[in-house]
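Review form for a predicted model. The reviewer records the input and the model, then writes brief findings.
Reviewer: anonymous (R2)
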Amino acid sequence: MKIVDLSLPIDEKAFEVHKVDIERISHRMGVEKFNRVIMGKSLWGKMKYAFGQRIIKKEALPDEEFLSLEIVHAPVHIGTHLDYSFHYGSQSEGRAAKTADEIPLEYCYQNGVKLDLTHLKPNEVIKFADIEEALKKIDYELRPLDIVLLHTGADKLYGTPKYFSDYPGVDPLAIQYLLGKGVKIFGVDTMGIDRPYRFMLKEFQETKDPKTFYPAHFYGRKKEFIHIERLANLEQLPAFGFKIVCFPIRIKNTGAAWARVVALLD
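Model under review:
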């Protein structure tokens, strides 16, 4: 069995719109962090720490090293992640929207299908006709619970400003088409399922038409669906005949959750 990693990292050095910070406490500094946390649990301990006392000194540890510790400060929409109903709005299908920790796990290990949409341009949207044509080219009929991966090639721009400005979006009617086939999860190798901000904002400001602003996301208020954003390496996959594993990290009450998405090939 071959495993193909379809995930992008959480990387504080990559270009991002939202702030990402990873506090990295080294092995050498780990003992100081330990002392500060443990002694800081009481006023007396804080005072002793301030005056230079330590309950453990580095000289008492093997190689004078403790344990490393990394503290990640990042939105749940950084790195490869799954979005669910709560991200789209407070309600979906007339009831309270569900959060990412409520994603049914049985949806997250299913047959995968890759559709080649690399010919589309950044200001365009993936329409249901594009999906039909891509399926026709690979002679495949969608089955319930298939995880559909929309391959645009935009992941190659990751780490640069163009990753946020040069990719096609997904038309709500295309999402409706997938849901009608029994698809519960679809994924994109772009930073989002709507067109880049530069196109949406311009049209919204010019027309004041709410249908031009995040239409794919807002469709999730009408119909419940799950999608994966920031996939990568889809060019390494065949059109079908593989499994997708995309279990979300269990974070309480969030609209999205990070996931290490992989494909399993026989």
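Findings: The chain has two domains: 2-10+76-265, 21-73.
Further findings: The domain at 2-10+76-265 is CATH 3.50.30.50 (Glucose Oxidase; domain 1).
Recommendation: see findings above.
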